[in-house]
Amino acid sequence: MKGLIDTLFEGNNLTNEELKTLIECEDNSIQEEYLFKQADKKRRQTYGNEIYIRGLIEISNYCKNNCLYCGIRCGNLNIERYRLSEKNILDCVSYGYSLGFRTFVMQGGEDLHFSDKDICQIVSKIKKSYPDCAVTLSIGEKDKQTYQDFFNAGADRYLLRHETAIEEHYKLLHPSAMKIEKRKQCLFDLKEIGFQVGSGFMVGSPFQTSENIIADLRFLQELQPDMIGIGPFIPHIDTPFRDKAQGDLHKTLRLVAILRLMFPYSLIPSTTALGSIAENGRELGLQVGANVVMPNLSPTNVRKLYNLYNNKAFVGKEAIEGLEELKAQVKSLGYEIVISRGDAKRNDK
Ligand code: SAH
User: Fold this and answer.
1) Which numbered atom of ligand 1 lies nearest the CA of 159?
2) How far is the CA of 11 from the centre of ligand 1 (A)?
3) CA distance 21 to 26
4) Which one of 89, 122, 223, 285 has the fewest CB atoms closer than 10 angstroms to its CB?
5) Closest approach atom of ligand 1 to CA 200
6) Can you tell me the distance from the alpha carbon of 186 to that of 195, in angstroms, rounded to the nearest whole number?
7) Rounded CA gap, 235 and 309, in Å?
8) What is the pLDDT of residue 349?
9) How far apart are CA 285 and CA 278, in angstroms?
10) Could you give the domains of the chain?
11) Residue 348's pLDDT is what?
12) What pLDDT was estimated at residue 313?
């Protein structure tokens, strides 16, 4: 197995069978330890000890979609819905800026209340007041012209996880109205327009096999995204997947490490979901190749309502109030949170 890890480290490809061996490597084994060590070495080669922070603003939990795994699906009638006003959002940005954030991520359900024009207006106001900042959108599938309008308004980046690359699996996670082809088209449209694009998938989503995960890695090789977000699936009580098993911590960490080796330049967050399934999940992610954290910058009164899954961490180091604590912790691990937009260090662009 060491040979496989070395092959990836040197920038060479593995076969599906070889990738499967790595994904299914035994928890806490010597091989896993070596994988983690080499992933950290690779991240240091590209990004040194820098960790980038993003202020995450959850702008709305209204959603027209009905994804089977997600707590804010429209079919969930047990949830109090909210949306932030333009002023709420700009206030979050102003507060975040004063704390040192230079990237703001506006994420939300697919809320039709926000028109494309509304989003453009908010983006351009942020960019006008804070020209040294990057704005990331994560508000779902739109047509190409809309993405172009967002880009023209000043948006820099777009996050849209493909969720799972194989059609049969995608159909098991989404209602029939949602199509993997559409999702992939959106991602290629975003790239063509010039966005820095982020994609990704859940680890341990219901019915997922190692073959599915390998297809996800192959899709990412085709897309060549700037950002890759993965986290464990966590069930939500008010969804059809309430009784499904949670994604595995070690498998998620191995995938973070494999992604770092396969995509050395990529920005990989140590996600909230990872921090939610284990006390030290977020730190572990950073130690095995992740180089981004996205503290929650949403107003405190709405945070618990953006409830994609149960037991979501939204206090302490997961949130803006814990920034100082997070900085100290990151330092104790040998990394440093920097004040920077934190763009991808790609050498192929
Ligand atoms: N509507 C936006 C934002 C979705 S929420 C969009 O479509 O991009 C962001 C991510 O949370 C999703 O892409 C999904 O991968 C993840 N997510 C949703 N439900 C989850 C769950 N139950 N467990 C873990 N992650 C989940």
Assistant:
1) 8
2) 30
3) 9
4) 223
5) 15
6) 11
7) 6
8) 56
9) 11
10) 48-338 (3.20.20.70)
11) 64
12) 81
Assigned token pair, 117: 């024009």
3-state SS assignment for residue 83:
strand
Tokens for 259, please give them: 């992604």
- Residue of the nearest CA to atom 12 in ligand 1? 161
User: What length does the chain have?
Assistant: 349
**For ligand 1, is residue 52 a contact (CB within 6 Å)?**
no
Q: Ligand 1, closest atom to CA 161?
A: 13
Atom of ligand 1 nearest to the CA of 202: 15
107 lines ligand 1 (CB under 6 A): yes
pLDDT tens, position by position, for the chain (349 residues)?
999 999 999 999 999 999 999 999 999 999 999 999 999 999 999 999 999 999 999 999 999 999 999 999 999 999 999 999 999 999 999 999 999 999 999 999 999 999 999 999 999 999 999 999 999 999 999 999 999 999 999 999 999 999 999 999 999 999 999 999 999 999 999 999 999 999 999 999 999 999 999 999 999 999 999 999 999 999 999 999 999 999 999 999 999 999 999 999 999 999 999 999 999 999 999 999 999 999 999 999 999 999 999 988 876 667 778 899 999 999 999 999 999 999 998 876 5
- Angle (CA) 210 214 219, round 5°: 145
Task: Write down the H helix ranges in the chain.
Answer: 2-9, 16-23, 30-47, 86-99, 116-129, 144-152, 167-173, 180-193, 210-223, 249-262, 272-277, 281-287, 300-303, 323-332
Q: Under DSSP, is residue 50 helix (H, G, I), strand (E, B) or coil?
A: strand
Distance CA 111, CA 114 (A): 6
Environment class of 66 (CB within 10 Å of its CB; exposed 0-12, middle 13-18, buried 19+): middle
* Cα 7 to ligand 1 centre (Å): 32
Q: How far apart are CA 276 and CA 279, in angstroms?
A: 7
> How far are the Cα atoms of 86, 150, 184, 232, 316 from residue 142, in angstroms, in the given order?
20, 10, 12, 26, 34
Half-sphere exposure of 270 (CA within 13 A, CB side): 29
Q: Which amino acid is at 205?
A: S
Asked if 320 contacts 57 with a C-beta cutoff of 8 angstroms, the reply is no
> Residue 231: which H helix or E strand, with range?
strand 227-232
